[in-house]
């Protein structure tokens, strides 16, 4: 049987990684002093699996080839204090005693993974198909997932749901079965039918039941040796109960439960009644038409349960920014007392866009993410530039999540922006999810200097993990194309010494005079904006009177017929859409000339000098856009 792993290279790589991880604990104080983070310890099951694979001692390979295909991930899932096998099953009235998705129509047909070891792909897509079944019947391509997941090995070399999550959340899939049928040759370039923006890790029996009722089938990892061992599986009852400690080797889909399933139906009698109803991917010939019942007390009942209960239209976002196509293969943090760490990615916008959402992993239940978005950041300094938005969320379950920003953030082509997240993961001292290359598993992962950073605080003391450790933080950013902005027309006219009221000017045109030593005596400003709820307010500093009251929407500010000069002005927008725009204005002042651009109610002109205003220009621009020109020296005051 062909295997895609380079075994000798792998063992050398694992040895070096293990030494590195062990060293991080020994040298913890030194690393902390240099602000160098440490990497999470390798999942012992991953090390054992890869070692056994090299030695040819994986039990299931010879005894039961058809059911193998599970590879433990390098990053072990966080374990809560509530054990999934402790039989804390809620048998109260909050759940029915029996629930079966086959009876509700929320399940797709049983499939057959043979001849490949890829139950992980079938269980993952079974969960997604079940979630969508409430509205539409779908059939997704496991073939595309096993050929194009991006990880090492070939379709028959196994996998896990972490690979499925990476494939789906980078928008490589899901692809339709009709476009890439199972068993066909590798196809690339096919477009996904949906965008997957969320995946949940389910870590309690009660949560499993709730997720089944709310969203449909779930993926679960198990040990499948019992199917070929009469000690663990009784085919007439489709009853499976494994009480050993051999490693997991297969993924199946949970489709329901039966609290009353008689313990005596199993070969070995478990401590109590009850079973999960599971859908296999070995065709309809075995068990109950391809389904079977696993005792609540099975060693791996409820193990690594994953809900693919999200699918969004592919026009939800127009662009995805990411450095982690293989997802969270490990995590990083600092010392044993720190479960709050900052992670950040710096991206460069490829077009004029609106940043509307970000995504990341929550590595333990009740993870808190404090998100900050900065624009115009300096290279290597995620928190430099302008802070444009903040948002804090606490995520009840571990998994992968997309968080929508409260307001879109305007980006321009070539603009650097940073997504900074303070991760707080209760009980977990490696809180930042990262993508790292591991031999014979995720060797395609790579990083470039200046992409990803970690810090113990939110100062500019950032550690470049992409440059120093060749890893990337698992933060993605999502944008939408900017619709052409229809700017409101701002209209204004001035009353000029000896000339009276001039004609209306608009959108940056100059009103008044220059080089004629004629004072402005009054001004009227209004907005022409049928597409927006906008108004304009303004007040002027008048000779002998000082600052007048605010005037609105075309009412005269200043004087007429009194030969009094305007010396300064303030302008701001009003109305429900005022926060969508900025108003800029500059004045031509006696003895000064054109002054800097003022903005949104700031003062423009002079006070205390006796200088007249002679001309003015006013512009409205989209909120956050650069000023029309220099802003320094917009106002001078003599005290």
From TrEMBL:
Gene3D superfamilies given in the database record: Cysteine proteinases (3.90.70.10)
Occurrences of domain Peptidase C1A papain C-terminal (ranges): 95-299
GO biological process: proteolysis
Pfam name, any one: Lectin_like
Domain of life of the organism encoding this protein: Bacteria
SUPFAM superfamilies found in the cross-reference section: Cysteine proteinases
Molecular function in Gene Ontology: cysteine-type peptidase activity
Similarity field: Belongs to the peptidase C1 family.
Protein name in the entry: Peptidase C1A papain C-terminal domain-containing protein
């Amino acid at each position: 049987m062909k295997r895609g792993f380079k075994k000798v290279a792998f063992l050398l790589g694992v040895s070096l990684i293990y030494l590195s991880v062990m060293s991080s604990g020994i040298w913890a104080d030194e690393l902390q002093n240099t602000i160098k983070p440490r990497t999470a310890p390798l999942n012992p099951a991953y090390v054992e699996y890869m070692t056994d694979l090299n030695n040819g001692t994986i039990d299931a390979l010879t005894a039961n080839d058809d059911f193998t295909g599970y590879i433990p991930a390098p990053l072990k899932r966080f374990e809560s204090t509530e054990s999934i096998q402790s039989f804390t099953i809620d048998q109260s009235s909050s759940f029915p005693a029996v629930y079966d998705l086959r009876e509700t129509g929320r399940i797709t047909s049983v499939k057959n993974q043979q001849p490949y070891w890829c139950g992980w792909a079938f269980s993952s897509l079974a969960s997604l198909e079940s979630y969508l079944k409430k509205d539409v019947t779908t059939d997704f391509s496991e073939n595309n997932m096993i050929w194009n997941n991006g990880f090492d090995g070939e379709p028959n070399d196994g996998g896990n749901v972490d690979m499925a999550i990476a494939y789906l959340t980078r928008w490589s899939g899901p692809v339709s079965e009709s476009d890439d049928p199972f068993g066909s040759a590798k196809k690339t370039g096919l477009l996904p039918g949906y965008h997957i923006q969320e995946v949940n890790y389910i870590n309690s029996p009660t949560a499993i039941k709730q997720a089944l009722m709310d969203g449909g089938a779930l993926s679960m990892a198990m040990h499948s040796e019992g199917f070929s061992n009469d000690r663990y599986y009784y085919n007439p009852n489709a009853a499976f109960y494994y009480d050993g400690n051999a490693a997991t080797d297969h993924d199946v889909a949970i489709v329901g439960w039966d609290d009353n399933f008689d313990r005596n139906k199993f070969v070995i009698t478990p401590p109590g009644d009850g079973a999960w109803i599971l859908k296999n991917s070995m065709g309809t010939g075995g068990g109950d038409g391809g389904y079977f019942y696993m005792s609540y007390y099975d060693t791996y009942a409820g193990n690594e349960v994953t809900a693919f209960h999200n699918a969004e239209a592919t026009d939800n976002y127009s662009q995805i920014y990411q450095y982690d196509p293989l997802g969270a293969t490990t995590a990083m943090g600092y010392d044993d007392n720190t479960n709050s760490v900052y992670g950040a990615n710096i991206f460069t916008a490829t077009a004029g866009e609106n940043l509307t959402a970000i995504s990341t992993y929550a590595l333990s239940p009740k993870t808190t993410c404090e998100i900050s978005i900065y624009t115009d950041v300096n290279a290597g300094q995620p928190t430099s530039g302008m802070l444009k938005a903040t948002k804090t969320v606490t995520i009840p379950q571990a998994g992968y999540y997309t968080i929508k920003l409260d307001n879109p953030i305007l980006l321009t082509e070539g603009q650097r922006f940073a997504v900074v997240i303070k991760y707080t993961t209760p009980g977990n001292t490696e809180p930042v999810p990262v993508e790292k290359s591991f031999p014979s598993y995720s060797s395609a992962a790579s990083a470039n200097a200046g992409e990803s950073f970690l810090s113990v605080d939110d100062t500019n003391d950032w550690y470049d993990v992409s440059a120093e450790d060749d890893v990337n933080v698992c933060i993605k950013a999502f944008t939408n194309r900017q619709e052409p902005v229809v700017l409101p027309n701002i209209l204004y006219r001035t009353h000029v010494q000896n000339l009276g009221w001039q004609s209306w000017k608009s959108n940056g045109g100059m009103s008044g005079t220059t080089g004629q030593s004629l004072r402005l005596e009054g001004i009227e400003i209004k907005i022409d904006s049928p597409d927006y709820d906008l108004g304009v307010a303004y007040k002027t500093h008048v000779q002998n009177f000082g600052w007048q009251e605010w005037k609105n929407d075309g009412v005269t500010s200043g004087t007429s017929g009194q030969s009094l000069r305007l010396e300064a002005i303030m302008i701001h927008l009003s109305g429900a859409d005022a926060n969508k725009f900025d108003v800029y204005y500059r004045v031509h002042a006696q003895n000064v000339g054109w002054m800097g651009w003022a903005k949104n109610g700031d003062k423009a002109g002079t006070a205390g000098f006796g200088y007249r205003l002679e001309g003015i220009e006013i512009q409205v621009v989209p909120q956050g856009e650069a000023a029309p020109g220099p802003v320094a020296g917009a106002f001078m005051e003599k005290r």
